[in-house]
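INFO batch 0412 | record 1 of 1 | parsing
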Amino acid sequence: MEWQPDEQGLQQVLQLLKDSQSPDTATQRAVQEKLEQLNQFPDFNNYLIFVLTSLKSEDEPTRSLSGLILKNNVKAHYQNFPSNVADFIKRECLNNIGDPSPLIRATIGILITTIASKGELRTWPELLPQLCNLLNSEDYNTCEGSFGALQKICEDSSELLDSDALNRPLNIMIPKFLQFFKHCSPKIRSHAIACVNQFIIGRAQALMDNIDTFIESLFALAGDEDCEVRKNVCRALVMLLEVRIDRLIPHMHSIIQYMLQRTQDPDENVALEACEFWLTLAEQPICKEALSGHLVQLIPILVNGMKYSEIDIILLKGDVEEDETVPDSEQDIKPRFHKSRTVTLQHEGGEGEEGEDFDDDEDDDDDTLSDWNLRKCSAAALDVLANVFREELLPHLLPLLKGLLFHPDWVIKESGILVLGAIAEGCMQGMVPYLPELIPHLIQCLCDKKALVRSIACWTLSRYAHWVVSQPPDAHLKPLMTELLKRILDGNKRVQEAACSAFATLEEEACTELVPYLSFILDTLVFAFGKYQHKNLLILYDAIGTLADSVGHHLNQPEYIQKLMPPLIAKWNELKDEDKDLFPLLECLSSVATALQSGFLPYCEPVYQRCVTLVQKTLAQAMMYSQQPDQYEAPDKDFMIVALDLLSGLAEGLGGHVDTLVARSNIMTLLFQCMQDTMPEVRQSSFALLGDLTKACFPHVKPCIAEFMPILGKNLNPEFISVCNNATWAIGEICMQMGVEMQPYIPMVLNQLVEIINRPNTPKTLLENTGTVFNSSHRCSTLLRTG
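INFO prediction complete | emitting tokens
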């Protein structure tokens, strides 16, 4: 007999569902406790599915909520459901997939796909055939509900659906989906394309077998009136460009014409999907040939897409000019990830081999919007196309640029400044003749009355920093630096952030050119300490650290130390050991300690001790977690990584002065553990510190060499390039200190080092560090005797 609810139990569940919609925190807490109690009763889940599918008298939000609570239970406890409960839920889902309410249909679809993702696709053999059969239903709701569920299953389980484990159901599903591309309902057409789209990137065989039918069906939908259908057609063509460009090439002219139209679609979601096409095409070898004749149409479209929309300006509070006294909310602050120290021969702390991603650069400009929008995509597309076409782009762009940059409407002027920044990398050579006129105009824009114009001017100027620095300092560097420093103290937080980031870029390019202005720069940065809210304070640390890296020992003057160190140490003392704001501050102090050298001595002891404590605490937490994962949380090892990197900075900056600090601590024991950590970034920073300690105070390292060398040998694995690089560098430093005493340890590393030298595509830094080891070994005559 089919399960039936007890009336009293049903009322209890309904009351709980009503209470859970209350905004009151105490009520919410009581609901959570009650849910945990009810989850002890297996048929509680029967009540939840009953409310979702059968209790039509209840309002839709309550029914949907019941389904979502059930979904969470499935996620957390499905393996403990009695089989009769699981079967009842599955049966009810399939019987009610055609509920008249779109909200309930969608909730049932989510529930079905959650059950399927718990391994049930294998043990629920009737699910896919039944959903596919229901697509043929005359009833629209049943067809749409089934398609909604199938779309979610295709999104969550695309690989499994294309495997032998399920007897390759796609062989039936893909041709079935293609039939529905012609359905009279736009919602069904949209579902059908979205389902097939899930299998393009993975090149599912069933789709490859039907690829021509698929492409023809997409072309037939090109003029569809429904924006969701158009969006899915654009998405499909963008993915096909990546995986089956051979099938698109014969139609490329028509596709480009179509995408030019769609990039101007009145629906921004469609326009965004279409705009992705230009980004993807730019990566294809045929780009130049395919697009050359269309640039005259494409460039104005992309430039037009780079304007802020009205909704963007509202979201960005574009009318708010001064907000520096408004505290940041926690969601404003993106999580930061520490980049471990990589040792080069010059020990600059980074390899500098990766190019910068446009989205990261531009992201600072409008980060309170969704991460990706038409403005950003258009700018990124122009950036990559500038790198493909170089100066050939300028005849199409320069006539537009003049009108934009000097336009009286600030929104249009702002977009022109963004255009100028977007083409900086690709068109630099062609832009050089215009820069003596443009750079002063951009510097003037730093004083614009609109904050969004001031902030984009900061970013664009940073893209031309290399050229600015190549000119006589009084020409552009000095006026730019002066204005950027004013903007660092702007009354608008977005401008502060953009100016700080731009100034850090300028510091990297200018290096010691900034030395004459250090006093002025430090006054500004230190003043900002008292002015900035939480988020921008983290960027300020970066600007100070970059300054230290750029001017090096020139910072080691009593006047500069007196300006800089008190506010940094005040922040250092303010922050607790578990505060993640320590990451950027530790990174900053690492650069400052390296630059100040002996000038850091008065501050080194408490900083050193705290770093050792951070490493020790993290290792202890990791140990407890590995022994009792149920009782302890996994530690955030970034605390340990940044602490190791600051210790490296201290050892490099203080040299022999670090000796007494090392003597009074257990750092060598801790280093032995860190060098064997499972996380590559921890090992990477450990080997950097080992090399620095070897240079600074070798007598403390020497007794540990016998234990350390086998670990170093194990880490000469080029698969982990940065770990391998730092381990090789540390071995080189040890070789130089050990001399002939190195002989017993050479066999532990020799074969791996030879392999690195002979390996194709080994990065230059790693080859240099490996070469240093061979040279040191050779000088000690140990290598010859071994070989």
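INFO post-check: Residues 6-10+39-120 form one domain.
INFO record closed
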